[in-house]
């Protein structure tokens, strides 16, 4: 016999866990200095969401310039940061929603809507940054958008996935709460003569 169920009560913590993972990746993106780096030696350029640093080929010290002096730099940082703050709020709301015995599924759908807002803010910040950076900051040699920028996109992709799951979760309310009996599928030679 095989039990077919969509979800289980213990599995309800997967979505808040994924939101926590998105928060960790967002922290790495916000704090990381690898948004843009020189692609090969000599490593003369690196940038974060907050500053751009360059150095000479033989120089060991980085000369950093704040990106907050540019309007687009403030806009990219603000939109990504606002999205991150709303993400933290959604995480807290998800933990609260899944902690109570009687889930409020309309509340869960609201969290999904907020997560789409988070994704929109993060995408705006992640698009403004490379477009305006390459237009207004002189680049030396071959450069690439690197690991911290990738963590920003990874966080956004996880948020979009969680947003869909949070919005669709109320459609399976009975399965999640365990109010529906599992359906068992089995075959027996006596009951299915047409299979012979």
TrEMBL record:
One of its GO terms (biological process) is apoptotic process. The keyword Cytoplasm applies. It is found in: Cell junction, Desmosome; Cell membrane; Cytoplasm. The chain crosses the membrane at residues 12-32, 77-98, 110-131, 151-172. GO terms for cellular component: cytoplasm; desmosome; plasma membrane. Keywords: Apoptosis, Cell adhesion, Cell junction, Cell membrane, Cytoplasm, Membrane, Transmembrane, Transmembrane helix. It is a multi-pass membrane protein. It comes from the Eukaryota. Belongs to the TMEM47 family. This is p53 apoptosis effector related to PMP-22.
């Amino acid at each position: 016999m095989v039990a077919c169920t969509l979800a289980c009560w213990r599995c309800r913590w997967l979505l808040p866990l994924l939101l926590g993972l998105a928060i960790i990746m967002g922290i790495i993106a916000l704090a990381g200095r690898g948004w843009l780096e020189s692609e090969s030696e000599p490593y003369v350029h690196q940038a974060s969401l907050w500053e751009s640093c360059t150095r000479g080929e033989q120089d060991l010290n980085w000369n950093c310039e704040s990106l907050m002096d540019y309007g687009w730099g403030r806009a990219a940082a603000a939109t990504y940061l606002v999205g991150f703050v709303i993400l933290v709020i959604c995480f807290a709301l998800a933990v609260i929603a899944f902690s109570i015995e009687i889930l409020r599924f309309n509340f869960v759908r609201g969290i999904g809507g907020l997560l789409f807002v988070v994704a929109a803010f993060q995408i705006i910040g992640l698009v403004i940054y490379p477009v305006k950076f390459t237009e207004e900051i002189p680049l030396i040699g071959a450069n690439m958008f690197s690991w911290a920028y990738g963590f920003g996109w990874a966080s956004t992709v996880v948020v979009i996935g969680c947003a869909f799951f949070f919005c669709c979760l109320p459609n399976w309310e009975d399965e999640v709460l365990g109010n529906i009996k599992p359906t068992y599928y089995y075959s027996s030679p006596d009951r299915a003569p047409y299979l012979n």
